[in-house]
Amino acid sequence: MADKRDYYEVLGVGRGASDDELKKAYRRLARQYHPDVNKSHEAEEQFKEINEAYEVLSDADRRAAYDRFGHAASQMGGNGDPFGGFGANPFGDIFETFFGGATTRRRTGPQRGADLQATIDITFLESMFGTERDIEMTRQETCDDCHGTKMRDGATPPRCTVCNGTGEVRRVQQTILGQFMTAQPCTACKGEGVQITDPCPTCRGRGRVTRGRTISVTVPAGIDENQTLRLSGQGEASTSGGPNGNLYVKVRIEPHELFTRQGRNVLMSIGVNVSQAALGDQINVETIDGPTAFTLPAGTQSGQQFRLRGKGVPQGQDRGDQIVTVHVIVPRDLSPEQRELFERLADTMGSEIQQQPAHRSFFDKVKDALGV
Questions:
Q1: Exposure string (b/e) for 33-50, b if CB count within 10 Å is 16 or more?
Q2: Cβ contacts of residue 31 below 8 Å, gap of 6+?
Q3: How many CB atoms lie within 10 A of CB 295?
């Protein structure tokens, strides 16, 4: 806790700052250090620090505990006081438990807006080299006229007098089985801790409006099937002054007629005739970069694989390889001239069958070496 900055210093306000001054300072700093706006490495940590400071200082109980005990208050009771959640009077809940009555519990700070999801389809080659996509979507955004306060002209709503701004009411009831304590959202303010006495006419006191948006998505090179991209702050606006939610975009990749992917490598197959396999040949092989010259060595066997270095999946400054599997195509229908040539070739090669050794696994070879 010693390395934490003072919350008032984080927001740049004095210790006597009003709720309205705190809110204005928070919004100004949140816009300045939001990760979607500020791309510096320190922006995300500063944004978290600003949210933490505002969450504490915007709550009356937590602010009072912080003013008295500093950062140590967060290590004490549930509401930040040294009596473990009994409030200003350490015996208050004890008396209310025995004699009945009502008490209140603090309301949590600003909550992040809801997250949204979307799905995009891209081609195989777009997944290799990256692309841009636009997503049409509808979301809840902060009202421009009230700036999310829900009051006309952005005025600060007064604190609820029923729950004293906590948003919850806790009651102790006497029954034949004993005392039972229940906690329910405040019905007067619907759990918000404030009362909207003069609603904003644009959003009708909701603080948010529904808008259609076109969101541009940058798909990075080398993305794989079903990976999800996170667009911070592109979700829905918060209802309590917190940061926006995120937009999560799932990527689906259309299959390619020639290529498949295996990790960082691109796989493909080619067919060659018997003479090419036996004598070798200079051929062109398709890659994701276009055709490239390849020397097929003499004596190539069907099923043999060759590696084209640096022709695979791009990943930063590096790339995987392309694995080419060669299949020797034996002709089914021969012309008379071709049949004569094959018969002459068969006479020179003989008709003896070459016996192939049985396949032995790695463990079989280990047993042989150990004499097992």
A1: bbbeeeeeeebeebbebb
A2: 37
A3: 10
Q: What is the pLDDT of residues 258-312, one digit of tens each?
A: 999 999 999 999 999 999 999 999 999 999 999 999 999 999 999 999 999 999 9
Higher-scoring residue by pLDDT: 190, 283: 283
Angstrom CA distances, 158 to 51, 154, 197, 220, 315, stand at 22, 12, 8, 47, 54
Token pair of 232, please? Answer: 């911070």
d(CA 160, CA 210): 27
Summarised one tens digit per residue, pLDDT across range 13-46 is 888 888 888 888 888 888 888 777 777 777 778 8
Query: CA separation (Å) from 340 to 275, 334, 335, 352?
Result: 15, 9, 9, 20
Mean pLDDT of 305-334: 93
Q: 50 Cβ partners below 8 Å, 6+ apart?
A: 10, 11, 26, 29, 30, 33
Instruction: Give φ, ψ of 256 to 5 degrees.
Output: -105, 150
62 touches 79 (CB < 8 A): yes
